[in-house]
Amino acid sequence: MKALAVVAALFAVAVVGWLVWPTDSAPTVLHASTGTHAVRLELAEPKTGVAGVRLEVTGPEPDAVTVEPVMPQMGHVIPPVPATRDGAGYRADVPLTMGGQWVITVTLHGPTGTEDVDFPLLVNG
């Protein structure tokens, strides 16, 4: 009976430790470039649900920016989401419907055409 109480106490300590253990709260930041632009993509946390994507674009000012998440292994394609101006960059809320490997395509629309920048992203389910 005493051994059972010790095991229960150890289990309780382990659960409390797991719940209060500090986690890495740093955002995920990815960089990529085209011949004309450099793009910095930032997500607070890559997990399922609606992800707030922040973008910084260096180079000629694009007329419009869209963000399109695709999960090639599962055949999931989410329609492109227009990014809106947000301070010095852009912001888009994109749905990530399940955990796994995604590709986030940022399309920069400008007077000389469009450029795509692809970012591989592992999403936690």
UniProtKB/TrEMBL annotation:
Protein name, UniProt field: YtkA-like
